[in-house]
Amino acid sequence: MNMSMSISLISITIDRKEKTTKTK
Q1: CA–CA separation, 8 vs 23, rounded Å?
Q2: Does the pLDDT at position 14 exceed 70?
Q3: How would you classify residue 21: left for phi > 0, otherwise alpha for psi between -120 and 50, otherwise beta?
Q4: How far apart are CA 18 and CA 1, in angstroms?
Q5: What span, in angstroms and rounded, lies between the C-alpha atoms of 23 and 2?
Q6: Distance between CA atoms of 5 and 1, rounded to whole angstroms?
Q7: CA atoms of 24 and 6, how far apart (whole Å)
Q8: What span, in angstroms and rounded, lies between the C-alpha atoms of 4 and 22?
C-alpha cells in the first residue's frame, strides 16, 4: 500500500470527523 495514499486517507477521515464534531 502506498504510504502517501494512506496518509491522505487518514487526513481526510480526520477532517471529516472534525467537521462533524463542529457541526454537532
Answers
A1: 22
A2: yes
A3: alpha
A4: 26
A5: 32
A6: 8
A7: 27
A8: 27
Global pTM value: 0.49
Instruction: Compute the C-alpha angle 20/1/11, nearest 5°.
Output: 20
- What's the distance, CA 1 to chain centroid? 17
Residue 1, all three cell numbers: 500500500
- Look at residue 24 in the predicted model and tell me its pLDDT: 63
Instruction: Provide DSSP, 1-24.
Output: --HHHHHHHHHHHHHHHHHHHHH-
